[in-house]
Amino acid sequence: MLTLSAAAAEAPRPQPKSGIEYAGSDVRALQADDFGNPGMLWVARGEKLWNAPAGRSEKSCASCHRDAPATMKGVATRYPRRDAGGGELLNLEGRINQCRVQQQGAETWRYESEELLSLTAYVAHQSRGMPVNIGINEANRVNFERGRDIYYRRQGQMNLACTHCHEQNAGRKLLADTISEGHGNAYPVYRLEWQSAGSLHRRLRACYFGVRAEQPAAGSAELVDLELYLASRARGLRVETPGVRR
Amino acid sequence: MSMLARVQVPAQARRGDVFPIRIAIQHPMETGYRPDNFGRRIAKNVINTLTCRYNGVEVFRAEMGSGVSANPQLQFYLRAENSGELVFDWVDDSGQSGSERAPITVTA
User: Fold this and answer.
1) Are A184 and A231 within 8 A, CB to CB?
2) Does A162 participate in catalysis according to the annotation?
3) Which of B7, B9, B22, B26 to mutate to test the interface with A (most CBs of A within 10 A)?
4) Distance CA A119, CA A150 (A)
């Protein structure tokens, strides 16, 4: 059985390549066209939600955060993130739901609901073109290491780890598809197979399904840790939200 | 949730110019052939009719079926005649309708 040492995991990697570079010209053209990109419909809905009052406080996102293009610029490049005062590691979806409960006095949105997807897409969209900039420090090292362990852990009936496809075989074919490096810099994406926008966790769960492993719940600590590790691998890649993928 | 749409219409055009109009609507365009997680058929629900009126005159009509993808986008061309408004109206099989308006200024 193949053993992956921690040393191999730490080896310097070549410059990461975004998933869009593995896509065909039609998918690239669709992503590049700001009107044609179907993901922009979710961004447009997110903008409405940003300005809509919610919860007991009757405050909207804009009541505190004002103008998203200014205040949310670059935010997505720094997530998942843990507050200085501790608490759990949160991705953008988790932060939005935390804000809804603590600041707006509203209910959380279900993961993968149209509302949560739309607002996440709108917030992440404000960082489009900016490089992913995740730092590993004392606050998130435990999560980073857990995420890395998942990335290199064989699992499921296929007995595969993330690395076997997305590192060792990136660029090669899996049936009709080209395997990408598995970066999350374009999420939430509009995926043609789904005929809808979807979160990174939906995509990760699809990978778990593909290797016939037990799927963690969307928004679970396991997937947020993995998201952090993926973001650290994607450091320097530009945010593309909303991306388009097959 | 109400149906969300985006339209692309040039704000200004010169009289006689031919310009593209684009509209994208967020809609699942459910084909009626898919089963849900319990094996029951999901009822067909597609945007069956979309019209565009230019100052009250119908200039475009699309009748769609289950072969059209989710979140459909349509594009067609118009010749600029007079300043005014483009009004898009559509309705799906469940009876839900949507509407979008876009002003246009035509210069001589």
Assistant:
1) yes
2) no
3) B26
4) 28
Q: Which residues of A88-109 are buried (b: 16+ CB within 10 A; e: fewer)?
A: ebbbbbbbbbebbeebbebeeb
Interfacial residues of B (vs A; Cβ cutoff 8 Å):
1, 4-6, 8, 22, 24-26, 28-29, 69-71, 73
Question: How many domains is chain B partitioned into structurally?
Answer: 1
Domain with B12, as residue range(s), is 5-107
What residue spans define the domains of chain A? 17-33+133-245, 39-125
Q: CB distance A38–B8 less than 8 Å?
A: no
Q: Which residues contact A137 (CB under 8 A, 6 or more apart)?
A: none
Residue A7 pLDDT greater than 80, yes or no:
no
| Topology alike, domains A17-33+133-245 and A39-125 | yes
At position A137, the amino acid (one-letter code) is N
Question: Which residue in A38, A45, A195 is closest to B24 by CB distance?
Answer: A38
Residue A8 confidence (pLDDT) above 70: no
What would the mean pLDDT of A150-161 be, rounded to a whole number? 97
The predicted complex's ipTM stands at 0.92
Chain A residues inside the 8 Å CB shell of B9: none
- The domain A39-125 is placed in CATH, from the list 3.40.50.200, 3.30.420.40, 2.40.160.20, 1.10.760.10, at 1.10.760.10
pLDDT digits (tens, 9 = 90+) for A166-192: 999 999 999 889 999 999 999 999 999
